[in-house]
Amino acid sequence: MTAPQSPADPTTTPPGGTARLAGRTVARIGFGVMQLHYATAGRDAALGLLREAVDLGVNHLDTAHFYGPCNELVRTALAPYPDDLVLAGKVGADDPGGKLVAAQRPEQLRAQVEANLSVLGVERLDVVNLRRADAPPGLIAEGDQKVDLDSQLAELSALRDAGKIGGIGLSNVSADQLRQALPAGIVCVQNDYSVLERATEPVLALCREHGIAWVPFFPLGSRFPGRPKVTGHPEVVAVAEELSCTPAQVALAWLLAVYDRTLLIAGTADPVHLRENIAAGSIRLSPQAVARLNRV
């Protein structure tokens, strides 16, 4: 089978098909805007990339106030927003002076929600993902930033009741934490997960059991030192050669294949990579290819 080299017409086929997120229908291939924080091509290029993503059928953007200028870029590029666009924010960190720090206390979560709303220019965020800081990768909470999950969920639930949040998601959590949070009504989980990183399989299993959307971050491997890159694994490369597509597309197609409520938010500042990521939604891995990748 040869993979298509360009995405299907987004007016008829949303990238990767569709799934539900916080009561909304979204294309299964979305866009994580964080990479635009580090883009070197300039502001106009970043704005153009966001507009192109939406033009190609993306209607789920993952953003955060602590992603530097990203919220302002989203607003400038896309407001007034399309009716079907789902804006997912993230809370749990801050970047005073450009250095990322944990911001886990309930009053800090509320302030971050308000900051996201203000800069994005909306009255409600469709989803807010609570980024816990209990375990790697990334931030680890210390001191007064070690906050119990129930207190955080109570604050986010109050914001949801006030109409400022459509749905509550979790990020970087264990299966026990997800189980604890289920009564709050969790709509999605964002965890480190890829062909090469399967430590959070128990969380994925719980998402399957409860019909919760699964939003893997680092789908092609982590930028943290010492972590392997999915695109360099021999089996991923071999499958890509057989399908005449890129290893990155194989890795993304595998994530879509393992659970029908997987939503991808692969980020990039490169228009070519954006189009390749979206085209991954048109790749259909055979059961044999999926099984081979499952064994990696």
Question: What pattern of helices and strands is seen along the backbone?
Answer: EEEHEHEEEHEHEHEHEHHHH
Based on CA atoms alone, the radius of gyration comes out at 18 Å
Main pleated sheet = 7 strands, parallel
Beta content: 5-15%
Q: What percentage of residues falls in helices of 4 or more residues? A: 25-40%
Give the uncertain stretches in residue-range form. 1-12
- Gap between N and C termini: 21 Å
Q: How confident is the prediction overall: mean pLDDT?
A: 93
Query: Structural class from helices and strands?
Result: alpha/beta
* E-strand count: 11
Structure annotation, total helices = 10
Major sheet strand order: 3-4-5-8-9-10-11
Overall geometry comes to: globular
Write structural notes for this entry:
The chain has helices spanning 43-55, 70-78, 106-120, 149-161, 175-181, 201-210, 234-243, 247-258, 271-279, 287-294; strands at residues 18-21, 24-27, 31-32, 60-62, 86-91, 93-94, 101-102, 125-131, 165-171, 186-190, 213-214. The chain has 296 residues and is of the alpha/beta class. The strands form 3 sheets. Strands 3-4-5-8-9-10-11 form a 7-stranded parallel β-sheet, covered by helices on one side. Strands 1-2 form a two-stranded antiparallel sheet. The longest helix has 15 residues, at 106-120. The model is unreliable at 1-12 (pLDDT under 50).
